[in-house]
Amino acid sequence: ELSKVNSLLAVNNKDNPVKKAETPTQDHKGITLASLDTISNKPANKGILAKLSLFDSGLSDPSNTKLINPDTRVLHIGDSHTVGIYGREIDGLMRSTGAKVQTYGSAGSTPSWWLSGHSTKSGFYSKDDEGKVDNPANWKEPHPTPKLNNLIDNFKPNVIIFSLGANLVKANAEQIESEVKKVADIAKESGAKIVWVGPPDSRDSAKPNSTQAFLYEHLEKVASQYGTFIDSRPYTEYPATGGDGIHYWGKEGTATAKQWASNVFDQIQTED
């Protein structure tokens, strides 16, 4: 595009000679600013000048201004919701940007499991940046939870997403805040940007709204100090009947989980 601009300058300067100032004002590519003013008044040249502006600013692709883009390496860890529809859906959305993505879901996990390597006995799912999947057919088969330090050392992400907290619903304030802080400190030390996605809505009979509100209060209190905190409750409403009141499956649950993932992804992409 720069060569096209220089060609236009040659034509315009021939047709409309610009009197040289004693010290011509130039940009760093050697194009006189007076000459740019001359061609900018022609409608046909607007597009090329717009592209030159992007070239000049280094933003050759506007999509690179999004948090997740082709230059991003995303590590996403979570609990049973990440093992399920939500985790797989948001994984696909992130990969669609051209980003390198690794997703790990360990059912039943709290943040501390990702420090100790505690094994899950209720389901595991992972998909690495090359697309290799680990999802045992026997979901009751014990599977160790990967340690966060190892995942960071091996993959070197520049964005870390935690979809965790649902299994802290019975914990006290001190435990909730302590577990969040420990994993967030490790993520922060790596230099990665941090996004914490809170758990979705549950049926009141399974997890009373007051209990969910308490959990959210202490999750957000700590997680928001490290980066972006996303409240999933406005994006989810558990059906009055069917399911177990917690996990999103079946026809209605699947549709909700997919929309939840889409909304979370959209919010991530609008964050600075």
Keywords:
272 residues; alpha/beta; Rossmann fold; 2 domains; seven-stranded mixed sheet; two-stranded antiparallel ribbon; 9 strands; 42% helix; globular
Uncertain spans: 1-40, 42-60
Number of continuous helical runs: 10
Rounded radius of gyration (Å): 25 Å
The domain tally reads 2
- What helical percentage do the residues reach? 40-55%
> Ends: how far apart?
29 Å
Describe the structure.
- By secondary structure, the protein is of the alpha/beta class.
- It folds into 2 domains: 59 residues, no CATH class; 207 residues, SGNH hydrolase (Rossmann fold, 3-Layer(aba) Sandwich).
- It is 42% helix and 13% strand.
- The chain is built from 10 helices and 9 strands.
- A 7-stranded mixed sheet has the order 5-4-2-1-7-8-9, sandwiched between helices. Strands 3-6 form a two-stranded antiparallel sheet.
- α8 links the parallel β7 and β8.
- α1 packs across α2.
- The protein is globular and about 45 Å long.
- The chain starts with a helix and ends with a helix.
Please write out the topology:
Blueprint: H1 2-15, H2 33-40, H3 46-57, E1 73-78, H4 80-83, H5 85-95, E2 100-106, H6 113-116, E3 119-120, E4 124-127, E5 133-134, E6 143-144, H7 148-155, E7 159-163, H8 173-189, E8 193-197, H9 209-223, E9 228-230, H10 250-270
Parallel strand pairs: 1-2, 1-7, 7-8, 8-9
Antiparallel strand pairs: 2-4, 3-6, 4-5
In brief, what are we looking at here?
By secondary structure, the protein is α/β, with parallel strands linked by helices.
